[in-house]
Amino acid sequence: MRSRTFLLNLQLSLIMSFLLVPLVVNAQTLNESELKSASKKEIYSIIDKLNFSFGLAFMDFRDYDTLFYNENESFPTASAIKIEILLHLLKEYESKNINIYDKTLVNKRVGGSGLLQYFDQNDLKLSYFNLAILMIQQSDNTATNILIEHLQMDKINQTIKNLNLNKTKLQRIMMDFEARKAGKENISTPLDKLNLLKIIYDGEILPDSIRKLAVEILSIPKETPLLSDINDEKIKLASKGGELSDVRCEMGIFYHPDFNYGLVIMTKNLTSSKDGDEIMKKISGLVYNYVSKKYSN
Question: Where exactly are the structural domains of the chain?
Fold first, then answer.
């Protein structure tokens, strides 16, 4: 009798153990799902109140979790197109078509961001590498236009096409407002820009030497609203933004010991570019909170 009772209790114990396993897994999945749902709700509640065009593309590079909003809509890139110019320069260097450490004459001046416009340019020469640093870290428009001239716009666009960024196009030099009035705008979409970040991150298309140098240059510290609401010294950000009077965009790869993700935020039809800064700060902070909580367990 005791033997039968023991066997019955053992069977019940095994059955209960079997039933409890999927319940625990489902509970964990549900918690993560609830976290994403709450984060999306908070983000979308902010977006719904905006009176300008907004686009968002996010990907967790560990589990490929994504979040999108108007990801296929075309936006002016402003200076964010300089990432593609940088990659083309590095690809030309890899192909031995240019030596990025060779110097070229700095004999142009254009307004907007950057210090080269104020330099004494009499016999001033800088390497293509240093021009690239200025183009990314200071968003120097003079450096950018010199690089576009030497690299050639049609060849830069061919590299963009080869990277399958089909909705991205460089159509004018920096600060060419007449071209902008004529409809020649540098354009992309949040999804294209996210794919660009993923290309840089995973190295499936780019040679490792190019990818590492691109990350190194893009990671040089710079002011960005993407970090304004994030207080985490472990974050390294490889990023580039762009700004015009009615346009603001920022995009970057967030490197952290516990997680890595890409985030693209693009805006247009702004009353003031400062409005774009404010929304980017909020959204980036919320995305970071979501990802960090997801990996805190």
Answer: 50-294
